[in-house]
Fold this sequence. Notes:
Elements: E1 4-9, H1 14-29, E2 33-38, H2 63-69, H3 75-84, E3 88-92, H4 93-99, E4 111-113, H5 115-122, E5 128-130
Parallel strand pairs: 1-2, 1-5, 2-3, 3-4
Helix pairs in contact: 1-3
Amino acid sequence: MSNKVAIIASNGGLFDAYKVFNIATAAAATEKEVAIFFTFEGLNLIHKQAMQQLPMPEGREHFAEGFAKANVPSIPELVEMALDMGVKFIGCQMTMDVMGLTKEDFIDGIEVGGAVTFLEFAKDAAPTLTF
């Protein structure tokens, strides 16, 4: 059985962020080696400004109160927790180039790489998840 969990984050909404970082931190807490590949809108989850204002799905605004009542950490807090737990963050170089973004646009601690970088990690991961 693999000790690796590979996650692809290709969507950039608030619910997507909670899914990605909840799974990543849970896996890291069980001593799995975890890598997240952020591509297309998924780059919003680690972008310094965008991660502060991820969109709530339309018609789901009532969840904001539930998150607060349940003391659910914010996305920036979950990002910090994941990094502290050793989760590897890989920003997609191709997508960054297409969008005119540089490593400086993102939080500290990310690696920039292409699909090959992620595939090298994911080749023996189980599970591999996409959000």
